Each structure stands twice: as C-alpha cells, then as structure tokens.
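Next up, sample data:
>
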Amino acid sequence: MLADAVRQLRRASVLVVGDAMLDRYLYGTVNRVSPEAPVPILSVERELAMPGGAGNVVRNLTALGAAVAFISVVGDDQAGSDLTGLIGGTHNVEPWLLVQGGRPTTTKSRFLASGQQLLRADQEVAMPIHPRLAERLVKIAADAVAATSVMVLSDYRKGVLAGDVAPRLVAAGKAAGRRVVVDHKGADFAPYAGADLVTPNRAELRAATGLPVGTAEEVAAAARRLRDAHGFGAVLVTRGEHGVTLLEGTGEAESVRHFPAVAQDVFDVSGAGDTITAIAAAGLAVGLPLALAAQLANVAAGIVVGKIGTATVRESEILQALKPENSVLRKVVTRALAVDQVDRWRRRNLRVGFTDGSFDPLQPGHRHLLEQARAWCDRLVVGLRSDDGVRRLKGAGRPAQTAVLRAATLASLGVVDLVTVFEEDTPLELIRLLRPEVLVRGPTQAGGRAGGQGSGLGSGLGAPAVPGAELLAEWGGQLRLAEPLSGDDPAQVARPVGAL
C-alpha cells in the first residue's frame, strides 16, 4: 500500500552534501508608489528565514521524520550564523557546517505582497570553496556516509561541489556501498558519473543532452542519452505540470514510467525539485522500489507547489493526498493541514467561514445551521469537538458516536468543505489559527449554555456572549447568528452582527 510506504519514510537515514543557502521572506503590503522612482513601497510586516538550497532538501527529509547528516559551507557573516542556528535547531539533523572566512553565505531575499513576489535580491559568490576546506569536507563525508543509507549531492553551483569534490564524493559513496542521488542545477553531469539516480528537470535535461524534451517520448529519449553518457543507474525527470518520468534499468530490463501530475493549485514551484529529491532518497534509504519512491515524490511535489516559498511536505499531507479523490475522508484533516488549506483558499480570494460543535449525533437543526453557514461564505470549515471534549462537556455516556464517525458524517455533506477535530474545551485556538472571514454561531452558542461560564471565556460585566467573537476584531472578521430550524424565535434570525 502507498500509505504504508509513506510511513516507512520516517525510518530513513540520509547524508546530504551541497550548497546551503539562507532564504529570507519579507511579507508586507503595498499602498503607494515611491516618489523617488516608479517602484512600489513595501511596508514590511513580518520576516521569515529558513534554510534553502541543500538545506531545503534537509528540511524536507526531517519533515518526514527522517534522520539527516548535513555537510556544507557557510561564510563568517551574520547570514552564516543565522543559517547555522536554523540547521542546528532542526530535530534529527547532525550538522557539519564548515566556515570559510571572507566568503559570503549565499542569501536570497524575497519581497512579497498579497501573495505575489515583487523582487528577489541575491547575495552570493559562486566560486569553488578553499582547497583545504574541500579536503576536509570530503573526509567528513567519507566518514559520515557509512552511518547513513543514502548520500544526496545537492549542487546549486555555488561552489561547494565544484572541482573534484563531486567525483570524490560519488566514489566515497560507492566504496561504502551506499546509493548516491544527485540533484544538479546545471548542464554538465560528468562529475557525477556512476551515480545511482539523478533528478534533472526538463530544462536541465535539455541543456545536458541538447535533445528536445517537449513530449513524454522525447523526455524518455533524452533521459536515456543522459544515462548512457555518464553511467547513471536511473534518471528521474521532473516535468512541471506533466508530472515526472522515471527511466531505470538497461537493455531488456529497461523501463520508462510516466507519473501524471497530481492536481493542485500552483502558487510557487521553488523548492519542488528539492522535495522530489528528498522523497526519492528517503524511499531508497528504506528499501522501497525506485518506481514507488518516484510515485510518492510526484505526489509530494503536487502538494509543495501549492505553498508559497521553499516549503516542505509532511507525512500527514502525503497520506491525505493519497486518499481516493471521491472519498469524503479527504475533507477530514489535521489542524496543520486545515491551516494550509485555508491559506490556499485565501490566496484564491475565497471567503472562509467557520463553525463548530459536537454534532453528536447530527440532527436536522445542525444541517440547517451548516446550510446557512455555507451560504455566507465560499468555503466552510467545521471544528468538531473531540470525544474527550464531548465527554467533559456532556458527561459520562457521551459521545453517542465517535469523532471518526461524526467527522465522516459531516464530511459527507456537500455544504461542508473541511472538518478538523479540536481537543480543547473551546475552539478559540482553532479560530485564532484559521482566522475565518465569517464566524457562524447557532442560537444556543449565542447566549445559552455554550456562551456562558462553561465556554471557558470567563464571565463578568462586559464579557462577550458569543465564544470567539472578540477574536474577529484582530482581522476584521464578521459574526453571523444562525436562525433556528423552527423559525419561531425572531430574536435569532440570521443577521450580520457587523465587522468586529
């Protein structure tokens, strides 16, 4: 089963050697044009820094739970210090970040507004590292490879793998009986001759072979040319919106497989190659057939392009994507996946609504509430109280139905777009994370049992009557109160309470 294969990836142990970078993202808003030049002025609201380049391969591996040894070179500057701290603080990573004096750490700064990149500024010197440092790097890698199952060489052409470093590392991997996976962002694959797997994209494959790569057949022919020229064991080609192509074996044992792209909103393709390399390497590390590893890598790539920036893919996300397209359980997600999906909807300018409850069991009044809620938004997320939460709220003997059954029942409704279970006594933390444009409450939640002291909101003069209402002021959300099914209480007629 594919799901079982995904869970095996957490057992992988991988050595990554290559060009580490620091990726900075500066997010803000643009409200005016500079009087000094016809350029937008970005009012920076937050800044995010993360490992990029080979460091992003490491991040993708650790996101799966794999253990990683990482060898690279940074400069003796603030960016190098920041990158060392980020890598060192990552769980399951043994870092060997060597420092070269006078060499700037490769840094890519991206400026974004409304989900769009305005500018990227790079700071780098793409020169070979110092020979003595290269010697030390190769020695460390030769020692470390024996403690891992697969070696990944991530070459962004910034100098870490320049000269004779790459062929020496391939030889060290082979001598240790380890498979070598190569992701090379260039046209000359000769230094990596004899590697077990290379993962070029179409542009890199075309540059390396001089052959056309427009069709699946042309990609296979070019991959065959690349394999034969350098004695590679297999070639895994990323083909963007067309998925991936895997060529493995030779002669009568040769096979070519084309895996179509997994349908996904594409927001940012940066880092997708790192994800494919990481998943393929992890698969080989735990003994999966290469074709199966490639299939999982293709699914993971379809997820990561739906995120902004050099993102990673978690095990839970891959498992979610593997659920049958027509399965209602695709709507039942973890809290982290709910946050990611809401972000994707919001980047499409979709209005997100939220409501919550125990729904134990689902009653006609509940359906009426959900139908109203969906009419006030483009996508509706339902927070479902956990079994323990229902028991604390309603006493022994409840819930009548488990959370699994209640979630599946909710997900089967066409008006519900996403279901996520919360363990807390109130949904306030979930609301804070999702930041819905519309918060929908039922009649009892507006002032009865759910809105009183048992809600966890506290009490006293001026305390809000509706759980979560006070949070909406942070992002300009809107509260809506649903009409009861009987329609005999005019005080509860659906109405906007205003942007709070």
In short: The domain at 329-499 is CATH 3.40.50.620 (Rossmann fold). Residues 448-464, 488-500 have pLDDT under 50 and may be disordered. The radius of gyration is 26 Å. The chain is about 35% helix and 25% strand.
